[in-house]
Amino acid sequence: MTNTHETILYVNLNTLEANFNFLKSKLPDGVKTIAVVKAFAYGLGDIEISKHLEKLGVHAFWVADFEEGLQLRKGGISKAIIVANPGYKSLKTIIKYQLEPVIYNYRLLELYANCKEKISIHLKFNTGMNRYGFEAIDLKKIHTILKKNPQLNVESVCSHLSSSNDPNKDDFSEVQIRRFKDICNNLEDSLGKHIPSHIMNSNGTIRFETKSNEWIRLGIALYGGLDHPKLKQIFSLKSVISQIKFIKKGQSIGYQNSFEANKDMNIAVIPVGYADGLNRKLGNQNSQVFIKDAACRIIGEISMDSFFADISGVNAREGQEVTIFNPKYSVSKLAHDLDTIPYEIMATLNRRIKRIYLKE
Known about the structure:
- The chain is of the alpha/beta class.
- It has helices at residues 13-25, 38-42, 46-56, 66-74, 91-96, 106-113, 139-148, 170-191, 202-207, 220-223, 331-338, 342-347, and strands at residues 8-12, 32-36, 60-63, 80-83, 100-103, 119-124, 152-158, 197-200, 214-218, 235-240, 243-247, 252-253, 259-260, 265-270, 288-291, 294-299, 307-310, 321-325, 354-358.
């Protein structure tokens, strides 16, 4: 098949598989994995990523809302799809497509209890992040509602670590883990059965102990967005030089005339901009791209659909490949340049960018 696109996000499924296998190797037997594929699989493409992970044996998929879950189901995903924020108007769709809502307050719990159709749910508790979730004090009332509504099958209990990436906050993470274990034990005692639990995210899985009867949620680690020697970035963003211009000393370029040449220069115009997810803060010499493995500073303001690079020291031509990031020039480095996190860069990659999936 001939590819006609010039700006392409390449996603290496072999590397995805290697990351998954490494993470699985760290876990005790019996631990089940939930693949976090919300936000279009962090910008990488939810259907293709999920299909490959389903073949690798993940237990379930985690999405943000019912529309993301519906997209996966219509895309051919047959395993469990957990909806983190199901909302209050999607009940019929969730039941029809056998999605599994996360229930985190009484309004949702009563909504599904009143439905009377059998459905699998996941209960979420707050253990310190103070975002979504019931409180430990709610256990008795939750137990009463569940006993009256046997059509509600509790598949798991979950919570969320707020700072699992920060060793300086391990004491707080440990408090969250202990609180969560107490909640799970109390709920199991009241219902008289074992209920799978999951609080560990990517960093938690790498940095903390996981018990054999737990589940884990893997997101950024699968995609190689963490700085870890055994995990590799699975994606690369590349484009081309659309036009090369010669500008003289004293001439300015782009919006606001924000860059003025202090010497005669060759510059490249590259057809990627902030509408594609390239943050405007990368402009004005705050970052670089790579042409023939040479670092070329981004100069001037980043436009909606294009940016400039200084190619004065590179023997480049129009049509030449430009690497914005790849495993060698990682998104973690780009995030550092922006004083942000890899999640933000990945999640804002516009869907108009062509995704190509590689598997050798």
